[in-house]
Write a structure and sequence with these properties.
Blueprint: E1 5-9, E2 30-31, E3 34-35, H1 36-46, E4 51-56, H2 61-66, H3 71-79, H4 83-92, E5 99-103, H5 110-115, H6 118-121, E6 126-129, E7 133-136, H7 141-149, E8 156-163, E9 173-181, E10 184-192, E11 203-211, H8 215-220, H9 232-239, E12 244-249, E13 253-256, H10 260-272, H11 278-290
Parallel strand pairs: 1-4, 1-6, 4-5, 8-12
Antiparallel strand pairs: 2-3, 6-11, 7-13, 8-11, 9-10, 10-12
The structure holds 1-O-phosphono-alpha-D-glucopyranose.
1-O-phosphono-alpha-D-glucopyranose binds at residues 110, 130, 133, 172-173, 192, 204-207, 231-233.
Length: 291
């Protein structure tokens, strides 16, 4: 199964981290020195994705600018002999024509956002990556999923999952666990944000999916679900009647950067993973822990 395209739903309002996201998209929040959106595009590129589809909304234009070439900046860096900085920008530059942007005109939910990408994705399997969930690991989460997909049938769907404590299951989509095979299992039922004490397992749906294009037909007529939104999980439940779904309990640490504590934790984790910052950061943390 060849996965060429990835969809990034980036229309969300980011209300959990206001006021940071009042005038700036949450996808542009920086972890160390890179915006969230850059990390997930890098993860997709590492996994072999060739085309990047962004479902944006109002006030998200800066995401498109971020992936554009900045001629004035390039010229100034060149004039000042700043080669390392020029190389950083060149490395992050997408290939011409490799990105598409479409708009979700109203905040109707994740399922609706994915549906907005249907014409750009067309009739091929595709990945969905939620940019506020970062995974620190090499190979990245999507690369692990694509490797797993290679051993499965052509009409398979995969979801990255992670165990969460029982008292947090109501915050996520949760998968029922069928036959297990190492880090992978057949998904036996799904539920979006189950009421406390009713979750079929502790395996939460994280922000990575590989889906078959038939999901779009289901989303077309999808009813509003949990929270009054058109839920991707509900459409997946529909598709699971005719196609297989697998959970991939990936290797790596997941950070929910759309929450304040998760965002701070991610900065520490990604900072500590950097050779140029580790010593300073460790020193600073020691100081604050002693206070
Ligand atoms: C969405 C999905 C949910 C998933 C979560 C992961 O929910 O609907 O199934 O567990 O992302 O972050 P949201 O966080 O957008 O409410």
């Amino acid at each position: 199964m060849k996965i060429r395209k990835a969809v990034f739903p980036v229309a969300g309002l980011g209300t959990r981290v206001l006021p940071a996201t009042k005038a700036m998209p949450k996808e542009m929040l920086t972890i160390v020195d890179r915006p969230l959106i850059q990390y997930v595009v890098d993860e997709a590129r590492e996994a072999g994705i060739e085309h990047f589809v962004f479902v944006t909304g109002r006030n998200k234009g800066v995401i498109e600018d971020h992936f554009d070439r900045m001629y004035e900046l390039d010229a100034t860096l060149a004039a000042r002999g700043k080669k390392a900085e020029q190389e950083i920008l060149a490395r992050d530059q997408p290939a011409p024509g490799a990105m598409s942007f479409t708009r979700q005109q109203a905040p109707l939910g994740l399922g609706h956002a994915v549906w907005c990408a249907r014409d750009i994705v067309g009739r091929e399997p595709f990945a969905v990556i939620l940019p506020d969930e970062l995974v620190l690991n090499t190979p990245g989460c999507l690369a692990q999923m694509i490797e797993t997909a290679a051993s499965l049938g052509d009409k398979s769907n995969l979801i990255a999952v992670e165990e969460v404590p029982a008292h947090l299951t109501h915050q996520y989509g949760i998968c029922g666990v069928g036959k297990r095979d190492g880090r992978m299992f057949e998904i036996d039922g799904m539920v979006e944000k189950p009421k406390q004490g009713t979750a079929p397992s502790n395996f939460s749906i994280t922000g990575r999916y590989i889906l078959q294009p038939e999901i779009f037909q289901i989303l077309e007529t999808q009813e509003h679900g949990a929270g009054g939104e058109i839920q991707l999980t509900d459409a997946m439940i529909g598709l699971s009647k005719t196609q297989k779904f697998y959970g991939v309990d990936f290797d790596g640490e997941r950070h929910d950067c759309g929450s304040r504590a998760g965002f701070l934790r991610a900065n520490i984790a990604f900072g500590m993973a950097r050779n140029d910052l580790r010593a300073d950061l460790r020193e600073a943390m020691r100081k604050y822990l002693e206070k």
